[in-house]
Write a structure and sequence with these properties.
Blueprint (H helix, E strand, L loop, with lengths): L1 E2 L2 E2 L3 E3 L7 E4 L10 E4 L2 H9 L6 H18 L3 H12 L6 H14 L4 H40 L5 E5 L14 H10 L4 E6 L6 H13 L3 E4 L4 H6 L5 E4 L3 E3 L4 E4 L2 H10 L4 E4 L5 E2 L5 H4 L8 H4 E5 L5 E5 L12 E4 L6 E4 L2 E3 L3 H7 L4 H5 L1
Parallel strand pairs: 6-7, 6-9, 7-8, 9-12, 10-13, 12-17
Antiparallel strand pairs: 1-2, 3-4, 4-5, 10-11, 11-16, 14-15, 17-18
Helix pairs in contact: 1-2, 2-3, 2-4, 2-5, 3-4, 4-5, 5-6
Bound molecules: ligand LNRAV4D5.
Ligand LNRAV4D5 binds next to α2 and β11.
C-alpha cells in the first residue's frame, strides 16, 4: 500500500546493499513512520518479540528473511537448524511463523552450504510474493459479501466492525480482513468501519485507524467493549476479522477479545467472517481451544499505555493502580460454531473441515494425521 503517495510493503530487501532487511517499526506508529534496517537474525527475533513487526503473515515472512541473514554468515546445517528454531520460538500462536520456517527448511536442507544464502533470499522472496498475491485475492473473495449488504441498503454505508489490525502492515501487502474493506472502498461501495481499539497494544486505534485514515476509508475508533452495544442497536452489518491460526474444524485463534465479538454477533444475528491466507491454516490441529498455544505477554502491556503528549513526546504511563498485578493473554479462540464463514485466497467456505477441504483438498492427508 502507500504512505503519502509512496508505495510500500511492510518488509523488503534493501535495494542499496541487496541483503539487509527493511521493516516499518510498528511500535512507532501512528506517530512516526520509522524504517528499520535489520542485519542480523537476533534483530529479527527482537523485532518479532517486541512487535516492531506483527501480524500473522508478516512475522512468517520476516522470520524467513531472518534465516537468510543468518545464512550469509554461517550456512552450515547446524546454523540452519539452530536459527530456524530460535526464530520459531519468538511467538507461539500465529502458525504462519512455523509455516514459513518449515517452508524455508524444506527448500534449504537439500542445498549445498555454499549456495544456501542465495537460495534463502529466493525462498523468502517467494514467501513474500505469495503473501502479496494471496492477500489481494482474499480481498476479491470477500468483496461480494460487502456488495450484497450494500445492495440491501442503497445509499447508506455498510457498517463493518473489525478487531485488531489485519491491514497491509499485518501482511506483506494488502492485508486480510482490511483487504476486503480496501477493495470495497476502492470499488466505490460506501463503507464505514468501527475500529476496536484492541487493548492492550491498541493495534486498532493506533494501526488500523492509521491505515484506514491514509486510505481515506471512513472509520470510528471505539472501546473494545462497545461492539456488543452497537450490534444490539443495528449499527453493525458485518464483523470482519483476521486470524493467527485456523484449525481443521474451523476454530479461530485471533487477538484477545475476538471471541467476545463473536458471541455478541451470534446473539444479534450479525454475520461474523474471518479472513485468512493458506499460511494461517493448521490442519494438524482440530480442537483450537485445547490445542492452540496462547501467547502470554508482559503484564506491563495491560498496566501501562503509550501515547503522545501535546508536546509531541511519546511516553508510556501507568494506568492501573500502583501495586496491582496484571494478566495479558494475547489471543483467544473462537469456536467454529460462532463463525459465519471463512474468506480465503481460494474463495469462501464454511468454518468446518468439509468447508476447508473443499477449498484445499490437498490438505486432506494432513487432516488425517
Ligand atoms: C493478518 S492477521 C493479523 C492478526 O495478527 C494480530 O496479532 P498481533 O498483532 O499480536 O501480531 C491479530 O491477531 C490479527 O488478527
Amino acid at each position: 500500500m502507500n504512505i503519502d503517495g509512496v508505495a510500500y510493503r511492510s518488509v523488503w530487501v534493501d535495494q542499496d546493499d541487496g541483503w539487509s532487511v527493511r521493516i516499518l517499526d510498528q511500535t512507532r506508529l501512528p506517530w512516526t513512520v520509522e524504517i528499520l534496517r535489520l542485519t542480523h537474525e537476533d534483530e529479527v527475533a527482537h523485532a518479532i518479540r517486541s512487535m516492531q513487526v506483527r501480524g500473522a503473515p508478516l512475522i512468517g515472512a520476516v522470520a524467513a528473511y531472518g534465516l537468510a541473514l543468518a545464512l550469509r554468515r554461517d550456512a552450515s546445517d547446524a546454523a540452519l537448524e539452530r536459527v530456524a528454531a530460535m526464530l520459531g520460538d519468538t511467538r507461539p500462536t500465529a502458525v504462519n511463523l512455523r509455516w514459513a520456517l518449515d517452508r524455508m527448511l524444506k527448500a534449504l536442507r537439500p542445498v549445498a552450504a555454499a549456495a544456501r544464502a542465495e537460495a534463502a533470499y529466493e525462498a523468502a522472496g517467494a514467501i513474500a510474493e505469495d503473501d502479496v498475491e494471496t492477500c489481494r485475492s482474499i480481498g476479491q473473495h470477500g468483496l461480494p459479501l460487502i456488495q450484497a449488504i450494500a445492495a440491501r441498503k442503497p445509499g447508506k454505508p455498510v457498517n463493518i466492525l473489525t478487531h485488531c489490525n489485519t491491514g497491509w502492515i499485518a501482511t506483506v501487502d494488502y492485508g486480510t480482513a482490511l483487504s476486503v474493506i480496501y477493495q470495497a472502498h476502492d470499488a466505490g461501495i460506501p463503507v464505514h468501519v468501527w475500529v476496536d481499539e484492541t487493548r492492550p497494544r491498541n493495534q486498532g486505534s493506533a494501526l488500523t485507524a492509521w491505515e484506514l485514515g491514509r486510505h481515506g476509508v471512513p472509520h470510528t475508533v471505539i472501546a473494545d467493549n462497545a461492539g456488543g452495544h452497537l450490534m444490539q442497536h443495528g449499527e453493525v452489518d458485518i464483523v470482519l476479522v483476521g486470524t493467527d491460526r485456523v484449525t481443521r474444524q474451523g476454530d479461530v485463534a485471533n487477538k484477545i477479545g475476538t471471541y467476545l465479538k463473536a458471541l455478541a454477533a451470534w446473539d444479534n444475528d450479525v454475520p461474523f467472517w474471518v479472513a485468512l491466507p493458506h499460511s494461517t491454516l493448521d490442519m494438524r490441529v482440530r480442537d483450537g481451544l485445547r490445542e492452540i498455544p496462547i501467547e502470554e505477554r508482559a503484564a506491563d502491556e495491560v498496566l501501562n499505555t503509550t501515547g503522545r503528549l501535546p508536546s509531541g513526546e511519546v511516553v508510556t504511563v501507568r494506568t492501573a493502580a500502583p501495586g496491582s498485578a496484571g494478566a495479558n493473554p494475547a489471543f483467544d479462540v473462537t469456536p467454529a460454531r460462532l463463525v459465519s464463514g471463512l474468506i480465503t485466497e481460494r474463495g469462501r467456505c464454511d468454518a468446518s473441515e468439509a468447508g476447508l477441504l473443499g477449498l484445499y483438498p490437498e490438505f486432506a492427508a494432513l487432516a488425517a494425521e
